[in-house]
Amino acid sequence: IPSKRSVDGPGIWVSCVKGKEKQTVGELRDLFDSIAADIWPIDNPHLPDSDSEDEDPNQVSELSIEEQIKAEVTAYKRPKSEQRFVNCQTNTPCVVFISCKPPVDPVHLVETHIRNVKSTGATRTRYTHRFVPISATCYTSLPDMQTLCKSLLERYFAHSDESSIHSYKIELRMRNHSTLTRSSVIQSIAECVPEKYQVNLTNPDLFILVEIFKSVCGMSISTNYYRLHKYNVMELANDFVQDGNVEVTRIS
């Protein structure tokens, strides 16, 4: 995955084993590319046209393999501007941030992977612990965060059944930041939520995920955060084994 110096969303925060940040970025490249290729496929102009009925099947098969290998090599050499995922340097132990480009939706990407882990027990990673998808980022000022929150809520309710939401909870995590207090951030974001929704700290219908890192604030909206074990793949894999399933290799 190519790198850039600043954290910029949309993207995905990932907690990992200390000292294995570089290896984590490597394994996430393969994981994210694989999932994104299934959900948001890219038309590949290098693949041959298979509609011809006059070509020899063996020749078509050989050409197909060659072209597929060529396409894979081309993908790895793709310019940074065309890469879907970019590693953002955090210089912080145990965490990495991978930004992503449209049409990739970080929440959809993460929840697709988490559901796969929940059903199979295979994490497909060795050093990754937990994911936090970020739909957008802003500067860590209270007005900017309120603007971002209102925008995300408006976008979410425009594409979902608003009548099924009655309560919410703000999940806040702060790293390397000492300017704002937790209470001031939570209060400011709560002011953006319509009054008809009540705070529920144990079993809310909707989660507002907030991640503050230095001078950057990222947010996303989820309804499955608790049901999917807070996107913790290690816990899901362990639960899969404890439920009586045959132990599986985390990498598959």
UniProtKB/TrEMBL annotation:
High-level lineage: Eukaryota, Fungi, Dikarya, Basidiomycota, Agaricomycotina
Positions of transmembrane segments: none
Keyword Transferase: no
BP-aspect Gene Ontology terms: tRNA modification
InterPro entries hit by this protein: THUMP_dom, THUMPD1-like
Gene Ontology molecular function, alphabetical: RNA binding
Residue ranges of every copy of the THUMP domain listed in the record: 116-223
Protein name per its UniProtKB record: THUMP domain-containing protein
